[in-house]
Specification:
The complex is a heterodimer of chains A (about 350) and B (about 350). Chain A is mostly helical and about 350 residues long. Chain A folds into two domains: about 50 residues, no CATH class; about 230 residues, MetI-like fold. Chain A is built from 14 helices and no strands. The longest helix of chain A is centred in the first third of the chain and has 45 residues. Chain A is flat, with a radius of gyration of 27 Å. The two termini of chain A are about 50 Å apart. The relative contact order of chain B is 0.14. In chain B, strand 1 and strand 2 form a beta hairpin. Chain B has a domain of about 160 residues: 3-Layer(aba) Sandwich (Rossmann fold). The longest helix of chain B is centred in the middle third of the chain and has 18 residues. By secondary structure, chain B is α/β, with parallel strands linked by helices. Chain B starts with a helix and ends in a 10-residue tail after the last strand. An eight-stranded mixed sheet of chain B has the order 6-7-8-3-9-10-12-11, with helices on both faces. About 5% of the residues of chain B have low confidence. Classes of the chains: A mainly alpha (about 350), B alpha/beta (about 350). Chains A and B meet through helix 9 and helix 10 of A and helix 3, helix 6 and helix 7 of B. The structure holds adenosine-5'-triphosphate and magnesium ion (MG). The site of magnesium ion has 4 residues of chain B, from helix 2.
Chain lengths: ~350, ~350
């Protein structure tokens, strides 16, 4: 029986292959995909900014007048120069110019990440205020999101793995229950138990009252102590989400042909778990992770409010109460940018995780 | 109700002479509707270098048998009785870690749908290498990466693939190439037995033929015993030395391929062969009357009796026939040959 069927992909020499690869890499990644994704990202941000610009103007309300009226009410009487004052402020904020100039300035400012002055805390700028609280939110929520992703995904993977130790299945019920409880309720419960009933952890805040933030160990420990309850409430509530998703994917993986083949190859259980089951089940999870990192800014407004945590959520809450239109607008803008950025990161990194997804055109 | 021939073979000369001996194997699925006897008392024996084809309608238990041979039967399936001797060792008694060592080393599987049997996120060469690595007996003897690369290239060459394929991902390969990769993996540790479950079912006719030729060549090189599972009698006839016919979880006939085709014994085998399309005579296509039974409620007596043209009233619907050697090298379970003994 003679037979020579050599099936080989076209092209042979190593040099030619390397050339072709470099060429393809350039055309595919730089020329097409990533570039297009970035353009699309900018487009989304611009579109959203325009909407932010238009919507408040459709409401027909004047934020400056609103603010002044509010102050006047508080003071008990309308000052005589009210209209003048309003006009002065409007001039100051550039609200007296033609709308298209306002729009142009608005977009130009945004392009330089200038979100304008705050109304409630004038003359502090919105940038300044948001940045202060952004650090806290990203520090707490970024860490917490990644932690709960890692813990949840791993426990989900073990839950969906028939050869995992038997006691893992007892995790399932509690996780399911926890994932059904909204995290702010969990937050209230934790505050009641561990801060109010048994004063193990502080009731609220990001650090001790009367402390000034600095880079000392003492301060770092305080921050950690203050972060534990809010972190726990979010971790406990979201582990279930990750675990259930991962468990489902793992169960689906069990039925697939390549898992059967992995066993038929006599591979060690650890390798089958990590390189075959987990690796494949992880693909949809990572997309979900990137998207949930994109929503970190809005993710836990309620938790921050419950714990009076000095983060973005709390700032937004204050801004709404003081009807500081510019802070709210800045917040919305930050949310849009972070969401679009997360999508951009998913789009660009996914083909690296899953070789079946190519850097396609468009 | 142990088969005499295979059982005797197992006891007397099996360990030295046979690569694989299956003795009265029973695999059941416990479902809410009842017990499905997917493999119901199968016995067979294979010598080194032998090629046995198993044919039978869909649902007759071929894949269930194949998975049991790998000892990969999954719940709700269960090996409820019988023995599988692999090189004289009864693998039904082995602990899982020991069995894991035997897979790929002693018995390898060429899967049914090679389309999806490779890990989509791993390069081909790593999927060949990991099997080799996980069977290194002594850690100190772990081959270095250069040596592994060499081995991968040699294996790829043996199945007719170029080294570049090693660096590719499964989705970049054609169906035929994937099946070749699956074969390269299967032979990577020179197993004693290769189980090929419909290795060509998803491929076009030309590629099917090439794949079967490659499988044949590899088998000769290794002097391995091959169990080929398939629907296609024509393809099977070209490849195998012996043919086993399964019906409703039972082996109803087994014999040399030539004899099975020229003179089938069991009525079911006869119908199978008559239903083959024949180019020269261009006769009308004859199917097999009736439907295969649901394995949940099997007919009494001989499971084939409701569809059997040579049905003996009073016997076939009441008494299950014994599976026995009725002529030299010919085994069948049919009342027509009840009195005849070799
Ligand atoms: N996981 C399972 N649970 C319950 N019944 C099963 C299971 N797997 C297979 N069966 C039943 O066992 C019987 C034999 O199935 P098997 O897959 O072994 O047949 P097969 O001969 O390989 O068929 P095909 O030619 O279609 O591949 C069928 O009746 C099937 O319904
Ligand atoms: Mg099958």
């Amino acid at each position: 029986m003679t037979e020579i069927v050599v099936e080989r992909p076209s092209g042979t020499s190593a040099a030619a292959r390397r050339m072709r690869f470099a060429q393809r890499f350039f055309v595919a990644v730089v020329g097409n995909y990533v570039f297009r994704r970035v353009l699309f990202f900018l487009f989304v941000v611009w579109l959203a900014s325009t909407v932010i610009f238009i919507i408040p103007r459709l409401s027909g309300q004047d934020p400056v007048k609103e603010k002044l009226l509010l102050e006047a009410q508080r003071g008990g009487h309308l000052q005589s120069g009210f209209e003048d004052m309003a006009r002065t402020y409007q001039k100051r904020f550039g609200l007296d110019r033609p709308i298209w100039i306002q729009y142009r300035n608005f977009i130009l400012d945004l392009a330089q990440f200038d979100l304008g002055p705050s109304i409630a805390f004038f003359p502090r700028t919105v940038n300044d205020i948001l940045m202060d609280s952004l650090v806290w939110t990203i520090g707490l929520l970024g860490t917490v999101t990644i932690l709960s992703f890692v813990i949840g995904t791993l426990s989900g993977a073990l839950l969906g793995w028939p050869r995992a130790p038997g006691y893992f299945k007892y995790l399932f019920g509690p996780l399911l229950t926890l994932s059904a409880i909204p995290f702010y309720l969990l937050a209230l419960l934790l505050v009641f138990l561990f801060a109010f009933r048994f004063s193990i952890f502080p009731l609220f805040g990001g650090y001790g009252i009367g402390k000034v933030p600095d880079f000392s160990l003492d301060f770092a420990l305080q921050v950690l102590r203050h972060a534990i309850l809010p972190a726990m409430s979010i971790i406990l509530a979201s582990i279930g989400f990750w675990a259930l998703g991962m468990r489902g994917m793992m169960v689906t993986m069990q039925g697939s042909d390549f898992m059967v083949q992995a066993e038929a190859k006599g591979l060690k259980a650890g390798r089958i778990f990590l390189r075959y089951a987990l690796r494949n089940a992880l693909l949809p999870q990572t997309t979900a992770l990137a998207l949930s990192l994109g929503t970190v800014l809005t993710g836990a407004v309620l938790v921050e409010v419950v714990f009076r945590y000095p983060g973005l959520g709390n700032t937004l809450y204050q801004a709404i109460r003081l009807s500081d239109f510019f802070i709210i607008r800045g917040f919305v803008f930050a949310v849009i940018v972070s969401l679009a950025l997360a999508t951009l990161i998913v789009d660009i990194t996914y083909p690296l995780l899953d070789p079946r997804v190519k850097y396609r055109k468009g | 109700m142990t088969s005499l021939t295979a059982a005797t073979a197992a006891r007397s000369s099996a360990s030295s002479e046979h690569s694989l001996v299956v003795e009265d194997l029973r695999v059941h699925y416990d479902t809410p509707e009842g017990v499905i006897k997917a493999v119901d008392g199968v016995s067979l024996a294979l010598k080194p270098g032998e090629r046995l084809a198993l044919v039978g309608e869909s649902g007759s238990g071929k894949s269930t048998l194949a998975m049991a041979l790998m000892r990969l039967t999954k719940a709700p399936g269960r090996i409820v009785a019988g023995h599988i001797y692999l090189g004289g060792k009864d693998i039904t008694l082995l602990e899982e870690p020991e069995m894991r060592q035997l897979r790929l080393n002693e018995i390898a599987l060429v899967p049914q749908g090679a389309m999806n049997s490779l890990n989509p996120v791993m390069r081909v060469k790593h999927q060949i290498i990991d099997g080799i690595l996980d069977h290194v007996a002594d850690r100190k003897q772990t081959p270095d990466s250069h040596e592994l690369e060499e081995r991968v290239n040699r294996l790829l060459a043996r199945v007719g693939l170029s080294p570049e394929v090693g660096r590719m991902f499964p989705h970049e390969l054609s169906g035929g190439m994937k099946q070749r990769v699956a074969m390269a993996i299967a032979i990577s540790l020179s197993p004693r037995v290769i189980v090929a479950d419909e290795p060509t079912s998803a491929l076009d006719v030309v590629v099917q033929r090439q794949i079967m030729q490659t499988l044949g060549r590899l088998q000769q090189g290794l002097d391995a015993a091959v169990i080929l599972i398939g629907h296609d009698m024509g393809l099977v006839a070209q490849f195998a030395n012996r043919v086993g016919v399964m019906y409703a979880g039972k082996l109803v006939e087994l014999g040399p391929v030539q004899q099975i085709f020229t003179e089938p014994l069991h009525p079911y085998t006869k119908l199978l062969i008559e239903s083959l399309p024949n180019l020269e005579e261009k006769k009308k296509f004859i199917g097999i009357p009736g439907l295969p039974p649901t394995l949940l409620r099997l007919p009494s007596g001989c499971v084939f009796h409701p569809r059997c043209p040579s049905f003996i009233k009073g016997t076939c619907e009441t008494v299950a026939p014994h599976y026995q050697e009725v002529r030299p090298e010919r085994e069948t379970s049919c009342h027509l040959y009840a009195g005849v003994r070799a």
